[in-house]
Structure formats: structure tokens, C-alpha cells
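Deliverable D4.2, example record:
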Amino acid sequence: MPPQATAKPRRTPRAQKPGVTVSDAIRLLTDAHGPFANEPRLDPAHELVFTILSQHTSDRNSERAFRTLMHRFSTLEAVAAAPVADIEHAIANGGLAKVKAPRISQVLNRILELNDHSLDLRFLAEMPMHDARAWLRRLPGIGPKSAGIILSFSLGMPAMAVDTHIYRVSKRLGIIGPKVSADKAHEILEAAMPPEDVYPFHAAFITHGRQVCKAQRPLCADCVLNYGCPSRDDAAIAKAAAAAVAPAAPDAAAPAAADNDRPDGQAPGRRRRQRNAVTPVPHTQAVKELQP
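Output generated by the structure prediction step:
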């Protein structure tokens, strides 16, 4: 008889680290970094111009460029009619003016062409969100992120706007897969939560990406989501925890109180102190200056 094949030992599946749900992430990040003010923003056309100016620069620079642009031309209709060189000169203090000036001119004139010579885009709020997003995507250089910003921040629609910080944090937490593109992430994240959570998610994740879950050196020990993050740096967390208990206090033998806000009841490494101030939205000053 031929020898029977030896059965291969069955591999024991790896224990999965606990995950973080979207709702828990929003709640914990809001507690850590918020509250987040959903303040009035610019009207859609002005918001669109501001969004172009904000690309690859700081909030301060984009606000400054937007302010000088509006002081120079007063209206977007005047901006649309102006030579590109004049727009470039007006926004020079915001950075990348040679790229952004022709884009602003092209977008505004394309809106006038598509919208019966009007820059009033408030009609988009009456359209199904898919159609409104598709309309904005017809404008030159307007991708899913810019369209989401206009629909969400200016028109109050539950559209997802995924910037580099949100994209990075979502991948590290495993909310989206490692091979998901930035464009596809908009659809996946928008479908992963109820409409009322879209803005809180955006505000919480972008703030967390800027302050804690940074691109080069994420501060895993300071992260309130590290208990369930598959990308966490366990060594850094352990090192921070050891440093925190090194100078033993008189009552060091007393057990540490669990963090009841955490879904697993465990305390994170180092938790950021709750701030009383509301986290401001960008270009608040620019909004005030445009109001009558």
C-alpha cells in the first residue's frame, strides 16, 4: 500500500486586534480635540475659489490670498472678467499663484457658461447629491475632494471630503483598505456612516491627522484610538507608559482608573487634555468680511 499523506497541521489563526468603529472614533476624537464648530461658511462660488486657493498651502496663506483677491476685485464676476495676470498678482501672497490664477479664471468662466451667466450655485442644494457632485466635477480641476467641500461646508449636504489627513488616518485605522485610492475613499467613507456623521467625521479626522496621527511620526502614545488601531506602534506606547510611571508618586500603588469613555474600558497611553475652546473652522475671518 502506498504510504498515506501526512496531514498538515492546521495553522492557528492570528488573534485580531480590536478594531475601532466609526462612531466610537468620532466620539473619542471629538472628546479629545473638539468640540468642532459647524459655523456659516462662504456661498458656493466663493467657497470654490477659496478651496482652490487653499490647495498646498496653509489656512493663513489661503485666507490672506482670498482677502486680497476680494479687496482687489470686490466681486467674483469681476475676477472672472479680469486678465489672469491681474488675478495672479492679487493672490501672489498665497503661494502657487501661477497655477491657481488660471484655474480660478477657468472655473469661474465655466460656471458662467454652464449656469446661464450666473455664479449663483445655490441651486445645487436642491439636486440629489450624486447629481450635484457630478455637476461640480464638470468644472476644470474640481475633483471629489473639492466637490465634497462645496456640497458639505457651503450647502450643508452630507458629502464626504477626503483630504490627505483623513485618507491617512482612515487607512491606518483599517476603515479603508491599504490599496483604496483617494477618489474611491470618498464613496467608501460616505457609505460607512449616517449622513449626520459626515461633518463630525471630517472635522475629527482632519484634526487628529494634523495633531496626532501625523504622516512621518505619528504620536501613537497620545492617540485615544490606539487601543484598536492595527497600525499602532506598540513599542512607542509601552515606552511612553513606562516613562509616565517612572517617577513613582506616593499613591503609585493604587490601581489606575479605567477610562470609561473607551469602548474597551482600558486607559490609553497619554490622553490629551480637553480644551475648552471650540476648534475653529478655516477662513472664518474671510466669511465675516464678505457679510454685509
